[in-house]
């Protein structure tokens, strides 16, 4: 068992929450900017293993290049041309980003500060609850009042995250959430890792990574499809930026995506209670491309606000809250 502590720190001048195990077996840090996980290190077989590829400097955090470990809300990934219709009204999200007015990508909160609502520590876990009221109706293209909470729970070898949207306004609001983490297994090369995604369907997109209209967006995966990852395949030099759905789990869920190092037997198991999994091999990161891989649990598809097959699922009624839970745990190295 690990006795946890939570302290305050900074990355440059940006506030950070630090989670530590008394025996040093677990350390993690989370920036208030976007409630963004910066680092997570777990000791396995006597070796500290970095499990995520987060922002290394304050400049990276503020510039948001690559959206490293970003919390995505109130939408995931993209909206076509930054626009959508909801309840018969048209909305334009261009201008919603405080750093790049033309950028509409991975939600509206990753560039805004959260507050710490509460912390809990004990012998087995540490829990930090963040919240944001930035969605107060004043952001361009999103005239809705939705309070967002993000809860992190760390244990010896696992991390659980829950994102909750609560409609505090007087009208229906569109809302969906997800996470944009970059994972690694210490110093192991991503090319040498194996990836398993329990999907039966892949999502077909256009050149802007927007899913095609209607049923054309969904193609059943068979064993001959190079993107069929149900049985696990080495990543090698594969270039992947694709969403998978039709996930299969134990009796319907949760669903488990696994990243494994065959040399050590060490693995990361990424689970989610519902939704889809987006995989990106980090080919265009400014720093250390392809040294990590994005495995993104998302509640709803890209461009969900514009899709008839998604619209009913994103509606958040006045006074209603909806949560999306997911997490990851380390499978330890196989003893030699």
Structure, explained:
There is one protein chain. About 5% of the residues lie in helices and about 45% in strands. With about 325 residues, the chain is mainly beta. It has one domain (about 5-330): Beta-galactosidase, Chain A, domain 5 (Distorted Sandwich), CATH 2.70.98.10.
Secondary structure topology:
Layout: E1 4-11, E2 14-21, E3 26-31, E4 36-44, E5 47-50, H1 58-63, E6 70-72, E7 83-86, E8 89-92, E9 115-121, E10 126-136, E11 145-154, E12 158-167, E13 173-174, E14 178-180, E15 182-183, E16 194-196, E17 199-203, E18 218-220, E19 233-234, E20 241-247, E21 255-260, E22 267-272, E23 276-280, E24 293-298, H2 308-314, E25 315-316, E26 321-331
Antiparallel strand pairs: 1-2, 2-3, 3-4, 4-5, 6-14, 7-8, 9-10, 10-11, 11-12, 12-26, 13-25, 15-24, 16-19, 16-21, 17-18, 17-20, 20-23, 21-22, 22-26, 23-24
Task: Describe the structure concisely.
By secondary structure, the protein is mostly beta strands.
General form: globular
Structural class: mainly beta
Q: What would CATH call the class?
A: Mainly Beta
Biggest beta sheet attributes? 9 strands, antiparallel
What order do the helices and strands follow?
A: EEEEEHEEEEEEEEEEEEEEEEEEEHEE
Distance between the termini: 24 Å
Say what the CATH topology is: Beta-galactosidase, Chain A, domain 5
Rounded mean pLDDT is 94
Radius of gyration: 19 Å
Give the count of structural domains. Answer: 1
The CATH architecture term is: Distorted Sandwich
Q: What is the β-strand count?
A: 26
Q: What's the number of helices? A: 2
């Amino acid at each position: 068992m690990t006795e946890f502590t939570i302290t305050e720190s900074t990355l440059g001048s940006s506030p950070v929450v630090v989670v530590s195990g008394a025996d040093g077996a677990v350390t993690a840090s989370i920036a208030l900017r976007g409630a963004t996980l910066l680092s997570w290190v777990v000791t396995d077989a006597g070796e500290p293993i970095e499990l995520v590829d987060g922002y290394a400097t304050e400049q990276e955090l503020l510039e948001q290049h690559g959206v490293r470990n970003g919390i995505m809300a109130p939408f995931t990934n993209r909206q076509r041309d930054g626009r959508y219709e909801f309840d018969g009204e048209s909305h334009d999200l261009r201008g919603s980003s405080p750093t790049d007015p033309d950028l509409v990508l991975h939600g509206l909160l990753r560039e805004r500060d959260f507050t710490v609502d509460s912390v809990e520590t004990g012998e087995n876990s540490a829990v930090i609850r963040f919240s944001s009221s930035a969605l107060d109706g004043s952001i361009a293209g999103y005239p809705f009042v939705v309070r967002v909470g993000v809860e992190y729970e760390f244990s010896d070898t696992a991390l659980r995250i829950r994102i909750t949207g609560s409609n505090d306004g007087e009208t229906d609001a569109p809302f969906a959430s997800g996470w944009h983490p970059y994972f690694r297994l210490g110093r192991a090369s991503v090319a040498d890792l194996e990836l398993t995604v329990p999907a039966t369907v892949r999502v077909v997109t256009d050149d802007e990574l927007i899913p095609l209209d209607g049923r054309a967006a969904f193609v059943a995966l068979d064993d001959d499809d190079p993107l069929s990852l149900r049985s696990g395949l080495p990543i090698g030099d594969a270039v992947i930026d694709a969403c998978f759905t039709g996930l299969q789990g134990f009796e319907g869920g949760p669903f488990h995506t696994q990243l494994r190092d065959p040399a050590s037997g060490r693995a990361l198991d990424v689970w989610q209670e519902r939704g889809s999994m987006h995989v990106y091999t980090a080919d265009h990161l400014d720093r250390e491309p392809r040294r990590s891989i994005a495995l993104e649990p998302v509640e709803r598809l890209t461009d969900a606000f514009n899709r008839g097959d998604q619209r009913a699922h994103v509606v958040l009624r006045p006074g209603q809250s909806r949560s999306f839970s997911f997490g990851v745990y380390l499978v330890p190295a196989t003893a030699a």
